[in-house]
Amino acid sequence: MEKILDPILSALAAAIALFLATIIKTLGDQLIQLIKVKVEATDQKLKASKFNEAYETGKKIFFAIEEKYRITENIENLAKSKADLFDKMLLENCPYLTKDELIQIRQSIAGEYNKGKAMLHEDSLKQQADKLIEENEKLKLLNAETENKLAAIKSLNESL
Fold first, then answer.
1. Which ranges of the sequence are coiled-coil (predicted)?
2. How many domains, in total, are found in the chain?
């Protein structure tokens, strides 16, 4: 009986070992895939967190620069110097940013900051234009009155 059981048991042991090896390999492959997915997700979270940190830092810097340059005489130099100062300060706080990321953050913040300003400027410009037209009309009337008085004085002088 042992002669019959020995080959059966050894075949059964080999089959079980092969089955376990297959299960272990499959589980190992699945575990490796899971680890890769987790690493990728963690990487994405880290990148998003770094971007959010840089964005928030950028907003603080942007508002500080806006306050510093609130009143200036030369508008051409203003935009360039503000952008350069923003880039410099943000890179000091977040040295890992690339030039493209820096530009993207600056434009995002500027867009958010300026989104309501266009309407305000249009309304303000329209009001200023209306006011200038009104003042111009008043000045034209005053000029006409002054010319009439001057003509009257000239004619009075000529008659004397």
1. 122-156
2. 2
